[in-house]
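Lecture notes, part 5. Sequence design as translation. It can be helpful to think of inverse folding as translation between two languages: the language of shapes and the language of residues. The source text, in structure tokens, appears below.
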């Protein structure tokens, strides 16, 4: 059980990071990034309501905007 939780936490960190890297290099990559963050928040983090996961994806969009200003 502890191993499963550790894998879920690792995926919750690694998957958005990979999608973020890809999203900076392709046109409309932000859609891929936001969708990935939404899925990770909904499935891995165990958020039951879609609006909480969507709020997390919106927060991630702010990070994406700030990062895109510096690249």
């Amino acid at each position: 059980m502890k191993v499963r939780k550790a894998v879920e936490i690792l995926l919750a960190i690694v998957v958005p990071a990979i999608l973020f890297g890809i999203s900076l290099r392709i046109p409309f990559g932000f859609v891929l990034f936001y969708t990935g963050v939404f899925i990770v928040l909904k499935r891995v983090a165990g958020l039951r309501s879609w609006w909480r996961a969507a709020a997390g994806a919106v927060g991630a969009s702010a990070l994406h905007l700030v990062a895109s200003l510096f690249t």
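The translated text above is only one of many valid answers, since several sequences can fold into similar shapes. The chain has one domain: 2-69.
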